[in-house]
Amino acid sequence: MIRKLSFALAGVALIAGAVPVAPSFAKPPAAAPLRVAEERLWLGSAWYPEQWPESAWPEDLRLMKASGANVVRIGEYAWSRMEPSEGKYDFGWLVRAVRLAAKYDLRVVVGTPTDTPPAWLTQTYPDTLQVDGTGKRLGHGGRRQFSISSQRYRALARDIVSRMAQALKDEPNVIGWQIGNEPTDESYDPEARAAWVAWLKQRYGTLDALNADWTTAYWSQTYTAWDQVPFNNDKGNPGWMLELKRFITAQWLEFHRNQRDAIRAIIGPKQFITVNLGGLGWANRFDRYAITRDLDLASWDDYVGSGHLKPDRNGATHDLVRGWKRQNFWVMETQPGFVNWAPVSNMLRPGETRAMAWQAIGHGGDAVLYWQWRNALNGQETMHGSLVGPDGRPLPIYAEVSALGADMAKASPVLAGTSPVSSVALLQDYPSRWAIDFQLHHRDYDQIEVLLSYYRPLKDALGAVDIVSASDAPLDRYKLIVAPSLNVITDDMAKRLADYVRGGGHLILGPRSGMKDEFNRLQPQRQPGPLASLLGGRVEQFYALDEKVAVGSGTASIWAEQLTPTAPDTKILLTYGKANGWLDGKAAVITRKIGKGSITYVGALVDDAVMTTLIDTAMADAGVVRDFAVPADVELMTREGQGRSIVILINHGTANQTVMLPEAMTDVLAGGQVRSVTLKTQGVAVLAKSKR
Ligand code: GLA
Ligand code: GLA
Questions:
Q1: What share of the chain has pLDDT > 90, as a percent?
Q2: Contact by Cβ (8 Å): 88, 119
Q3: How far apart are CA 329 and CA 309, in angstroms?
Q4: I need a labelling partner for 426 at 20 to 30 A (CA). Which of 86, 245, 456, 620 fits?
Q5: 570: Cβ below 6 Å to ligand 2?
């Protein structure tokens, strides 16, 4: 069988070589030096020198430096300035911009410009243009109009990024590279279709295997030639849809590796290479674990759009991003007050932009970069928030960012090299995200909201909560693991989870768990499929709810499952009350002790009060120690490392809040030792525990 999923592609070398296993020394080896991305807190903006006369650059950079910035991101849309016509290159301006930034003590992240091919390129090579899922070929005028699968486009991309790297390789203030920007749309052009067929052959080997795994006897879908298999973004056979997602992931991997390898061959080892995965942290167009595994650093864009910061959802998104590589991350873009694309592109409240930056840091972000420094005088984004106006003078938000810059400079020495550390993890996984989204069954079934319903009570109790991959994150460091929506459970995953429980871990599974296998095919056993025997229980039937039903002392909505214990030692934790008739009096939550560990199955989407009780009980059973209590509107975040423990507090509410600390701590921003802090609305405190 060749179907074992592997994103390692033949002939493509990985940058990070295998880490040699160190022999055990009597004396512990010195801590590894911090990588450049995490050696301090980074503050900066996206800046587009190609849009301005060079005479304007020094004042831009002077004002950046004066705001406390230490990094600037440039280059990611400037292909037509770097290669004005085919084979005619001009990197002089780019090198001058990088050197001028160095004069102002600003480090540089260089973006490759492959999101915006020049007009000459798409005119000469129309075959590099993307074909969307409906079969329409895109044209010039916007961005991201290229085909990720075009070998010609990849060769052109390799050429321009290699030349950029050559031009900049000796510039000491370049610290990192960003490939493209916000990978978004795959392409359905003929070349991509050929790659799809090759992918299927490599994954399945024979059409018989493919037909069996997708159950194509259904609706006469049986394929007798490879090129009969559809290639579009319509709805179709769920096995086919899941495979298409894996193919798209592999196409993005190849697209990025092409540039990564070209750059890495030229630049020094200390510079990082990242892909900015964009503003939709939860988006699931492709597998973000696979994409970031290949890179040195995870980065994303933190935008509110309309309205105001939702601390739970935004904080959880940071945690998701931190979980992609299980390392600190960068916020490559965030809004300087407002955007231009939201239904109402309102301004954040005074202090909210700063609070948002500290929330990113509290959740493991080491960098906050604003998009953008200064708006181009024309183009699609003239209405976006920025730090300076078209006159190059500071806008009102500049003062807030400058205050942030001063605070980040104070906090940087204590925060560098620290990360959130948790004894609790939420598991998520893209195959399950896809599988449920393909067949929602209830229009309001929102997996992110389901995850957040578990996240909230955990985060209320703890300074840090991990969100990591169900497929390959190490589990033994966690006392409690919650898998809210693991619809697809492969045999390997079932074994990992069962080993965790047998090793003393506490596992909670949410509804719809273990229903599908790796081909998005129904498991032949009842849910939770390969974990049903460990649970000693199963799902008799699932119900999409059109009305709330009573469960325990509260209610469930949207989804409820009727559970049955099948082992004598499986206990019923909660039952349904008067419900839809089918569910009345039946088990809603069941649990079984396995040695020192346990497995619990929650069959319904329960209200917040019921969830809080469930989570509180699970934390107590698992021995998870709560952090110190803070008022409801205050968010507590913790980072640890380098022998330091840091607490970050943000008051997201509108009234002043006083937080009593469990011990005297150093107030990093205000100075002095404190036993309590009072936070105004949007107020932030950074506190360091004294060394013991
Ligand atoms: C229709 C079709 C069936 C099936 C059902 C599902 O009636 O004839 O093949 O798709 O809907 O409700
Ligand atoms: C995205 C892009 C940027 C810019 C901003 C505007 O995040 O990466 O180029 O368009 O949105 O909010």
A1: 93
A2: no
A3: 19
A4: 245
A5: no
